[in-house]
Each structure stands twice: as structure tokens, then as C-alpha cells.
Amino acid sequence: MSVVNEYEFTKDPDVNLLISAAREAAMEVRGVYGPVYEKLVVKYGLAFEAEKTGEKPPEDVETIDGLVDYVSRKLGRYPRALRYLWHA
Prior knowledge:
By secondary structure, the chain is mostly helical. Helix content is 61%, strand content 0%.
């Protein structure tokens, strides 16, 4: 039996829409786990972006919204940015 990928994009997906969906999911989970979750999302999201772009992450990003803004500005900095988005 073989597994078939159900999703096949005929054009590039709307990255801004996917970022928005990731943000909404993170905000929903933050509502359950509180500010500690948000700090961890920001910490590891910035670390991941720094690894992929080779740049030092900004120190003033403290919220999920700040992380989303930062990630949105950096999407073109490394190949296949969309695959990495979900890890950020």
C-alpha cells in the first residue's frame, strides 16, 4: 500500500495566510499555558531564525506578535522558508 500526498499546490501558497494561522494557533495555546509558553515560543523561534539566517536575533522581541513581524521580514533570507516557518 502506498501513501499519496493529498495536498498538491499548483502555485505557491499564501505565506502571509500561513503565518497568520501559525500565530492564531500559538495565541490559542498561550491562552492555555500562559506567558511561559509565549516566552518559549519567542525564544526558540528567534533561535531558529538566527540559525537559518546567520544573524544575531534582536533582543527587543518579547511577544508572539513581535516574533511574527520578525519572521515575516526574514522569510526571503533562506531557501524554502515556508518549510521552516512551522518550526519558528
